[in-house]
Amino acid sequence: MTIEASSTATARRRLRLGMVGGGRGAFIGAVHRIAARLDDRYELVAGALSSDPERALASADDLLIAPDRAYADFADMARMEAARPDCIDVVAIVTPNHLHFPAARAFLAAGIHVICDKPMTRTVAEAEALADLVEKSGLVFVLTHNYTAYPMVRQAKSMVADGVLGKLRLVQVEYPQDWLTTAVEATGSKQAEWRVDPARSGAGGSLGDIGSHAFNLAEYISGLKVETLAADLECFVPGRTLDDNANILMRFAGGAKGMLWCSQVAPGNANALKIRLYGEKGGLEWQQESPNTLLHTPFGEPPRLITRSGPGANAAAAHATRVPSGHPEGYLEGFAQVYADAAELISARLDKRAPDPAALGVPTVHDGVRGVRFIDAAVRSGRANAGWTIV
Amino acid sequence: MTIEASSTATARRRLRLGMVGGGRGAFIGAVHRIAARLDDRYELVAGALSSDPERALASADDLLIAPDRAYADFADMARMEAARPDCIDVVAIVTPNHLHFPAARAFLAAGIHVICDKPMTRTVAEAEALADLVEKSGLVFVLTHNYTAYPMVRQAKSMVADGVLGKLRLVQVEYPQDWLTTAVEATGSKQAEWRVDPARSGAGGSLGDIGSHAFNLAEYISGLKVETLAADLECFVPGRTLDDNANILMRFAGGAKGMLWCSQVAPGNANALKIRLYGEKGGLEWQQESPNTLLHTPFGEPPRLITRSGPGANAAAAHATRVPSGHPEGYLEGFAQVYADAAELISARLDKRAPDPAALGVPTVHDGVRGVRFIDAAVRSGRANAGWTIV
Amino acid sequence: MTIEASSTATARRRLRLGMVGGGRGAFIGAVHRIAARLDDRYELVAGALSSDPERALASADDLLIAPDRAYADFADMARMEAARPDCIDVVAIVTPNHLHFPAARAFLAAGIHVICDKPMTRTVAEAEALADLVEKSGLVFVLTHNYTAYPMVRQAKSMVADGVLGKLRLVQVEYPQDWLTTAVEATGSKQAEWRVDPARSGAGGSLGDIGSHAFNLAEYISGLKVETLAADLECFVPGRTLDDNANILMRFAGGAKGMLWCSQVAPGNANALKIRLYGEKGGLEWQQESPNTLLHTPFGEPPRLITRSGPGANAAAAHATRVPSGHPEGYLEGFAQVYADAAELISARLDKRAPDPAALGVPTVHDGVRGVRFIDAAVRSGRANAGWTIV
Amino acid sequence: MTIEASSTATARRRLRLGMVGGGRGAFIGAVHRIAARLDDRYELVAGALSSDPERALASADDLLIAPDRAYADFADMARMEAARPDCIDVVAIVTPNHLHFPAARAFLAAGIHVICDKPMTRTVAEAEALADLVEKSGLVFVLTHNYTAYPMVRQAKSMVADGVLGKLRLVQVEYPQDWLTTAVEATGSKQAEWRVDPARSGAGGSLGDIGSHAFNLAEYISGLKVETLAADLECFVPGRTLDDNANILMRFAGGAKGMLWCSQVAPGNANALKIRLYGEKGGLEWQQESPNTLLHTPFGEPPRLITRSGPGANAAAAHATRVPSGHPEGYLEGFAQVYADAAELISARLDKRAPDPAALGVPTVHDGVRGVRFIDAAVRSGRANAGWTIV
After folding, report:
1. Where in chain C is the domain with CATH 3.30.360.10?
2. pTM for the full predicted model
3. With contacts defined as CB-CB under 8 Å, which chain D residues touch A49?
4. Under an 8 A CB cutoff, do D302 and B300 touch?
5. Regarding the domain delimited by D4-117, which CATH topology (the fold level of the hierarchy) does it fall under?
6. Rounded CA gap, C119 and C142, in Å?
7. CA distance D116 to chain A (A)
8. What's the ipTM?
9. Which of A71, B28, B319, D170 could lock onto A48 through a cystine, CB 3.0 to 4.6 A?
10. Cα(A213)–Cα(A235) distance, rounded to whole angstroms?
C-alpha cells in the first residue's frame, strides 16, 4: 500500500484535520491522532478538545494547535472553520457517545467531512437522521469500526465474498474483556464512569462499547444481515444499570445462524474479540489479539495459516498493510487504515475523481445505523426475556 | 495414582468384565477395552458383542473371549453369567443409545455392576426409571462421560469448589466438530448412520452425541445446575431430521449464565470441546484437544498455565494422572480413568469398605438423568422457537 | 491400526512377556507395562523386578506374577525361563543403563527376544558387542526410543523420505527439561540419583538421558547420519560430574547441518522435545508436548497443520494411531506403538512369515549403537573444548 | 508513556529530521519515517534520499520535502544544513550498510545528532572509529536495533537486571527467516541483491542482516557480554558468497552459555526472532512475532503470561507502550519507541537537562561496535572451522 502523504494523487498536501473531544486524559483521541499521523495524510490543525475552555486550550497547546483554532465548543468550531480559507477538510469526532450526533450534524451542515467514533448515536432515530444528513450532504462519513481494517479481516471478507467458504451456515463472534469485573467506576476511572452511565453511553453497556464492534465484524465479514436476535443481558456488578455481559443468539438473512457474546466481566480477557465463520466448504477464524494470522479450514484439507503479507494473502489484505510478513502490525495500524481509506475517499472528492475501490471497505454511516439498531434490538430483547427481536 | 491391578486393596485379582456391543467394526467398544486394560484392573471375559450370532462369536474370538461366554443376546448373557461361579463383576454397555436402557436393566436385575455409555437413555422416563433401578439395586452404575476424567478437568472442578474463582458468573462451553459437514450418512459411514437416525439416537442429533458431553462438563466443573435453557436448533444438511448444530443460552441456579454451542458442521474442528468459567475472582479455560494444560486467570494477576503433574497441579489432578508433566496424556487415559475409578468403587463394594473418595468424581446415573433431561429440554425449546425451557 | 491381540495373524494368544527392572518405586517400568497392555498383545508372566529378593517378590506379587516366576536375578530368570515350556517370548529390560548390556546378553543367549530401554549401553564397545550378538542370534531386538513412534513423527519421517521437503539443509532439535535445575539428587530423588551417577548412567548426563532421544529423532526423521559434532557441555549445578546441559553443532552426511540442545536446567520446560527440519522445498516442525499436530511449511505456500488422523495424515501415521482426529493421543500411546510393532516383528518370527513392513519403523540395535556413539562423541568433544568429533 | 510532541518539556516544537537513503523503492526508509511520525516528535524536512539526483528530488517531493532541502549527496546535505538557521536537529541514516560510516561521520562533523540503521559499519575498524567520533562529539548516536524497544523486551531486560531469574545460565536465541530459500537475488529483488553482496553488506550475510539483531538482543536482555563464539557458517544456495545460515555456540562472561541460530533459508519462518533465558530461579521466553506476551517461568511455579500493559507489566514496559492490554502493538511501534527515546535524549541535550532515565534503554554506538565485532568474530570463526573466537 501507499503509506505516505503524496500518495493522494490529488492535492500536493496533507488533509487538514480537526478534532472534537480527545483532550487531556482521554484515551481514544490520542489513538485517532496516531492513526491520522501514521500514513502521513493528515495534519491536525484545529480542535474542540474539551467543553471546558481552559482544558480545551491547554490540550490544543499540547498538540501544537494554534490558539486561534482551539475551540471550546464544537458548534463554534464548525462555524468558524467553515469561514476560514484554510478550513479543515475533515473532523474527527471522538467524544462520549451522546455527542456524536449533534457534533456530526454541525460539521456536515458546515460542509466538512466527518470521521466519527462508534457507536454512532444513542438512538435509532438519531442514527437514521444522521444517515439522511450524510446522504443529502454528499460528504464523506466514516465510522471508526477499526477492527474491520485489519488486513486479515479485509482478507476474510474478501474470501467469503469470493465464495471460498461456500454458503455460510454459522457466524460465531465473541468479545470478552475483564476490566469491569469489579466496580472500577466507583474508584475514579473516567473511562469506566461514562461507559456505565446511560446518559452518556446510551441504552447499551457492554453492548454499545464492544458488542457493537462484534456485531459489526460479523456483518462486515459475512456480508450478511442479522434479521433477528435473542439477547440475554446481565448486569453482574451490583450498582450498574447497563449490561456488563450479553449472551445473544442471531439469525441471519438467508438462513445462517450465530452466537454473539460480549462481556466486560470475564477475568483474563483483555480485548479478546474473535470471530469464526463456517460454510458448506470451509471455515475461517480470526482473533484480534493475534491479528496477523487468519486460520482457513477448507473442509477435508489440512488447516492453513494465512499470515499478513505471507503466502496466500490476497489483494484486500495487501491494501491494508505496510510491512512484510513476520513484522507484526496491530491495533494502531488497523486504526490508521481507517484513516488512510478515509483520506483516499476525501481526496477523491476534493479532486472530483472516483475513489480507489479498495478504500471502499471502510465502514460508513450505514454500518453506524446497523450498530445502533443492534444495541436497540438487544436491549429490547433483553427486556422481553430474550425474545426474538428484529434488528 | 495407582495404575495397576493390585492397587485394589481388595481381592487379589482383576475384575471380570463383560461387554455388550462393541463387535467388529464398532469404534467406541475398542476404546472401552483399551480403557479397561490400561490400568490393569479388569480382564474381559464375556461379551454380547453383536446381535448377529455369527458376528458375536467372531468378535469374541478376536478378543480371546472363550466361546461359551460369547453371547448373541444381552438378556441371555445377564442370566447365564449370573448363574456362573466366575460371573462377571461388571458389564460395559457400548451399544447405540436405544439399547442402553434395556441392557442396563437386565444386568442390574442380575446383580451385576454397570458401566454405560452416554447419552444414558433415549427418554427422560427411561432415565428416571434407570436411576430408580440403580438406587434400589445398591449396585455401582458409572456413566462414561469420559471428559470429566481428564486430570485438568478434575483440577478445575476442585478449584471451583474451593472458591478459587469466587462466585461464578459465566460458563461458556462449546463442542464443535466437522465430520457431518456433508451427508456422509448417505455414503456408508456406519458411525454417521445411526447417529442421524432418531430411532437409534433419540431426539437429539449433535445434542445427544456431543452436546450432552458439553452440558455435563459445564455442570460437572461448575457444580451448578442449569435451570432453564433456550435452544436454537438447526439441521443444516438436507435430508437430516435431527439437529446438526445447536446454539443455546443457559441460566444456572444461583444466577450464573452461559452459552453452549455444539455443532457437527463446523469445518476445521475435529473434537474441539472447550469450556471457560468466570467468577468474581478469576477464570479458568480448558480445551480437550490440548488437555494437559489449564489456564487460570486470577483477576488482576498474570494468567497462569497449570500443567498436568506440573507446578500448581492439585490432588484431584494427581489422582487422575500416570506420567510426569510434559509427557502428554490424552483421550484414552481420560477414558481409562473412568474405568479406574469404577474399579475402585466396585472393589470397595466387593470388599465391603468405603471407596476412595477421589474415585467419587466419576459420573453416575444422576449425571445420566441430567444429560437426558438436557437433550429433552433442548429439543422442546427448539420446537418452541428457542423459548426458555426447564431442564 | 489393529489394536488388539488377535491382530497377530499368528498364534491365537498374547505374547508372554518378562521384565527386568521396574519394581516398586521405579517409573519407567510401569510405563513399559502400560505400553505392553494397551494394545493387548502381551501378558506379563515373569520378572526380575529388583535385585533385592524381597522387593523382587513383592513387586511381582503387586503385578499378579506367579511367585515361581518372580526372580531376583536376571541371569537366573533367563536360564530358568528358557527351560520352561511356557517360556517368555520376550523380555523388557528397564533397569538403569549399566545393566542393559549384561541383561540383554543373557536373554539373547537364552534365545529370548529383547525390548530394551535407552541409552542402550554405557560404552561403544558394549553397544557394538550387543549388535553382534543380536545379528548372530537372529532374534528381535527393539530399543524403546518411544518418541519415534508418535504418529506425527512417523508421518514426518515418511514425508522426508518421499522428498516432500526436497534436499535437507537443516535439522534443529532441542530437548529442554527443568527437573534438575536444583540439586534434587541430594534430596532423595531416586530418579535423579542414578541419572547423575556415572557408574550407573555412563559418561553422559543430560546427553544420555534426553540428548540421545533428540539425536535419535534427528537421524530417524531425516534419514541422515550425523558425521561430526562439536559439543559444548556444561554442568551448572555444583557437585555434579555429568553434564546437565549440552549445546551441540552437527554436520550430517550429504551437507545438512544442525544444532542440538539438551538441558535439564531450563526452568519452565517439562519435556519439551522439539524438532524442525528444513529442505529446499519446505519445512516440518513437531513438538512432543503437542504431539498430535505436525506443522508443514511448503516454501511459498501457507503453512499447514496436519493433525493425527486428520486431513493430510498419511499411511505411516495411520499405522501408529488408534482414535480419530481431535481425540488426543500422548506419551503412553507412543510407547505402546513400540510394543505393538515389536509384537508384530516377534509374531512374524514365531509364525515364520514376513513382518508387516509398517512395523519396521521401530528402532533397533543399530539405533542403539548410534545413540551410544553420539554420547561418546559428545563427551569426547566436550573434553576437547567442543572440537569436531566423528560420531 | 507520552506519545505526542509536546511531551518534550523542551522546545515547543517537533525535532527537525533529515534522512539519508530511503528513496523510492526502499523499504526500511519508510519504516523509519512512520516510526518518526508515530509519536509526533519529529518533522521530516530534509533528505539525501538517493545518490541519483533525479530520484533524490522525486523522492523528496513525494514526502513533501522542500526542493531546496532535497540533496543528492549526504556530504552536501551535512554541510549545507549546518549552515542553515533551521538546520536539522538529527539525521536518520537508512542506506545499505557500507554507507553508514561515511554518512555518520559527515553529520557528526557537522554537529548533527545521528540515528543509524544496523549493522553499524562494515568493519570493526570503522565501528571503533565511529565510537570515537561519537564520544568526542558529545552528540547523540542511536542505533535502530528496534527489537530492543518492544515493551516486553524492555520488561525482560529489567526483570533480569532485578535478579528475577537469579544468576543466568543459558541464553538461547534464534532468528530464522525464509525469504532467501531460493536465489531471489537473481530474479530482481533489490532487497536481496545488496544483502548478498559483500561490497554493500560487509562480511556477513544472514549474520549481518539478522544475526546481529539476535546477538544484540541476547546481550541487551541478559546484560552479559559474549566472550567467545564458535560459528558454523553455511551458504546453502549456490552462487552466494555470504552465509545464509549460521549455527553458533556462545560463551558469556561469568559462565553463562548459549546458542544462536540465524537463517534465511528456513521455509515457513517469516521473521521468527525468539529468545529464551534461563537462570537459577526461572526463565523468560519472548517471540517477536507475538511480541505482546512474555512468558515467565519461575522454577517450581506455574508459568505466567505477562502481557503488555496487563497485570505484571513493569515500568520499563509501561514506558514503551501506548495502548491498553489486548490492543496489540507491533513492529512499527517498537521502531517508533527507538525514535521516541532518541527524541527524549536529543531534547534533553537541546534543553541542557538530564534525559529521562527510561529513554536510556535505547541502543548506542557501543551496541553498534559489539554487533560489528560479532559479525567479524563469527566470520573468522567460520573460516577456522568453527573454532572458538573472541568477540
Report:
1. 149-329+369-390
2. 0.96
3. none
4. no
5. Rossmann fold (3.40.50)
6. 12
7. 19
8. 0.94
9. A71
10. 19
